[in-house]
Amino acid sequence: MPKHGKKFRDAQARVPEGTTFQPTEAVSLVKELSFAKFDETVEVAVRLGVDPRHADQIVRGAVVLPHGTGKTARVLVIAQGDRAREAEEAGADFVGAEYVQRIKDGWLDFDVCVATPDMMGQVGQLGRILGPRGLMPTPKAGTVTMDVSRAVREIKAGKIEFRVDRTGNVHVPIGKVSFEPTKLEENLTAFMDTVIRAKPAAAKGTYVRGITVSSTMGPGVTVDANLYRRG
């Protein structure tokens, strides 16, 4: 593994080992520790007490972050007729049934895919391409819907999807280093509230086991997980 550079080590040295922080303190420290010359993304990683190998312990969902992610998602809508026109009016970047074939041919220049239920017969053929990339539309995430205009508006406003990975972690962006601490904290709170509501009935023991926030290049800062251990 590559060794971290001096700037990272200097930043990491400012994080007291074994210390947990309140959300406001954590995001403020992430901002202070940022050293890259670009506007880094602020990310949160949550370690959950679930076993994703069991279908009844999969944690997934979507949340509209109050202040967005700082990045405008490129939205593809696979729809026809009136629904396609609605998607275009709502601001979708790419619209049409012909994108099914384009994706088969290797085109993937989008961030979120929305599809109407009547198109899922065709979209289902893209599972092996879109599934591993987290781009497959699903009803649970609100990306298989007849209300495409609402789906597009929410995504453009900062809606993000999340799904637990095979190691039991959920990892999402919650903004940019340039955001004010209060906005980052409110985004973090909205995300954590949604994760808690998504707790599977089959999950036993401690559900939220660890929370770390960091910038793209910076070290992780541990948030006090006890704040989210309700229910």
Describe this structure in words.
The structure is a single chain. By secondary structure, the chain is an alpha/beta fold. It has 2 domains: 6-68 and 159-228, 2-Layer Sandwich (Ribulose 1,5 Bisphosphate Carboxylase/Oxygenase); 75-156, Rossmann fold. It has 8 helices and 9 strands. The strands form 3 sheets. A 4-stranded antiparallel sheet has the order 7-1-8-9, with helices on one face. A 3-stranded parallel sheet has the order 4-3-5, covered by helices on one side. α3 links the parallel β3 (75-78) and β4 (94-95). α2 (23-33) packs across α8 (181-197) and α3 packs parallel to α7 (148-157). The longest helix has 17 residues, at 181-197. The protein is globular.
Essential attributes:
Rossmann fold, 231 residues, 8 helices, 2 domains, globular, four-stranded antiparallel β-sheet, alpha/beta, Ribulose 1,5 Bisphosphate Carboxylase/Oxygenase
